[in-house]
Design goal:
This is Glycoside hydrolase. The chain is 38% helix and 12% strand. The chain has one domain: Glycosidases (TIM Barrel, Alpha-Beta Barrel). The protein is of the alpha/beta class.
Length: 458
């Protein structure tokens, strides 16, 4: 009887403990609920901008010019923390199947228009001429001055396919160049493009008065460098060239139309993200165009890199001389900033293209040596301050500019071409490109005085 009573009492005790514990949990939950119900809310203070729109534009400009950091209070480091090795394993790149290494003696090339490639006899003559001289490269139109992609390509990009014409068989031509180890460069006329601007006016510049697509005095139309769609199209064209086997992509007309700063307010066009950089400050007016060109080159370089091709840009020689002048900002070119973003920078320094009196020369076309000599003095100084070791490979004149006034120009032959090459040589520059719109070049020139040891005095 006593043992059963003990068991009974123990059971009652357990029940009591469980009941007390349950009551404790319920009380805790009620307290928590009461606390949650009594949470107080506060209205946040109104946040007002500390800076005016003008101050924000000015700050964005300083960031793009490397004069400020996007995070206030942090120190600016103008030198890279990491550097890429000069050579990467071939396995990291797309293999086009075309093996033409960069010439050890430097690129010495000629421009070859599609008309030459369509003429089998002269094409063979030009191949022989390059093969038999110190010349070793060809700059070939891949996307021409009208915007035509002059070879049939099979691209995933609809616009690329639409603008491709089967004028030239580049696969055959690249095999010819590979046999002779002639370095192939694909010239891509970038923002001058009648074809795309006509089929897609939304990518172009239109008159604010009548809505018609703007044309320059020669009937050329431009597509808008502010637009990502325009970037993507030109990069897609470049990638097709690299996949075929071209070892370098040369962007020409990498700019806005000449004089754009004087008539841009009469046009309708999309500024995209670059509207944030527009300012009325005369010292910065048009700077958004420079940013757009710089950003395109960065974007293109990154996208083309996996395909194993270098990137080069053609610039006006005047761009290097004039620096940050208003008319240079007008077309969006800044020599030093562009050189930072490419493997090769090619200034067009044709003596005939400088105005009367430039470099103190009454008629620059008559003084090819002096023009190149004085130009290179400035370019060398600019490139010495560029972090990226871009190669200087200027465009030289191998044509007669008979459009100049009588007495201010001369017939260009071996002597005039030689003078330009010697002027480069004296600055230690042994790379160059020769321009002749028809693809006809002067014979009897020593293209490599640094190798032959021939001495010239001018």
């Amino acid at each position: 009887m006593d043992s059963e009573s003990g068991v009974f009492l123990k059971k009652q005790s357990y029940k009591g403990i469980i009941l007390l514990f349950t009551l404790f949990l319920l009380s805790a939950c009620n307290l928590k609920a009461e606390k949650e119900e009594t949470v107080e809310t506060y209205d946040l203070p109104t946040v007002e901008m500390d800076y005016s729109d003008e101050e924000i534009v000015a700050f964005n400009n300083r960031v793009n010019q490397g004069e400020a950091n996007q995070y206030e209070g942090l120190n600016i480091h103008n030198t890279p923390l990491l550097t890429a090795p000069e050579e990467l394993p071939p396995a990291l790149f797309y293999d086009s199947g075309v093996n033409i290494p960069y010439p050890e003696e430097g690129v010495k090339g000629v421009y070859v228009p599609a008309s030459v490639l369509e003429d089998p006899e002269y094409y063979q003559q030009l191949l022989d001429y390059v093969d038999q001289t110190a010349l070793n490269a060809m700059v070939i139109d891949f996307k021409d001055d009208l915007g035509q992609i002059v070879s049939d390509v099979d691209s995933d990009n609809k616009l690329v396919n639409e603008n491709s014409i089967a004028l030239v068989d580049f696969k055959k031509i690249l095999k010819d160049l590979e046999e002779r180890q002639i370095y192939p460069i694909a010239r891509i006329v970038t923002f001058k493009d009648n074809l795309l601007s006509t089929s897609h006016p939304e990518y172009s510049f239109k008159s604010a008065e009548d809505g018609e697509i703007w044309q320059d005095g020669n009937g050329a139309q431009f597509i808008n460098p502010f637009m990502q769609e325009v970037w993507d199209y030109n990069v897609a064209v470049a990638i097709e060239a690299a996949k075929m086997g071209f070892k370098e992509i040369q962007f020409d007309y990498i700019r806005f139309p000449e004089g754009f700063e004087t008539f841009s307010d009469t046009l309708e066009y999309n500024l995209g993200d670059y509207e944030a950089y527009v300012t009325d400050d005369p010292e910065l007016f048009g700077q958004e165009r420079v940013y757009a060109i710089n950003d395109f080159l960065e974007y293109a370089n990154e996208r083309i890199a996996p395909f194993g091709a270098d990137v080069s840009a053609d610039v006006f020689g005047y761009t290097a001389i004039a620096g940050d002048a208003a008319d240079v900002r007008g077309i969006g070119q800044n020599f030093s900033q562009m050189a930072e973003r490419v493997d090769v920078i090619s200034s067009m320094i044709y003596p005939s293209h400088w105005d009367y009196g430039f470099f103190g020369l009454e008629s620059p076309d008559l003084f090819p040596y002096e023009v190149v000599d004085q130009y290179m003095y400035t370019e060398k100084e600019l490139l010495s301050k560029v972090t990226n070791p871009a190669t200087s490979r200027p465009w030289l004149q191998d044509f007669t500019d008979s459009g100049l006034d009588p007495g201010t120009y001369q017939e260009y032959g071996a002597q005039q071409v030689q003078e330009q090459i010697v002027a480069l040589h004296e600055y230690g520059i042994h790379e160059f490109l020769l321009w002749n719109a028809g693809g006809f070049y002067t014979e009897g020139v020593d293209y490599a005085p640094e190798i032959t040891g021939n001495e010239f005095y001018y």
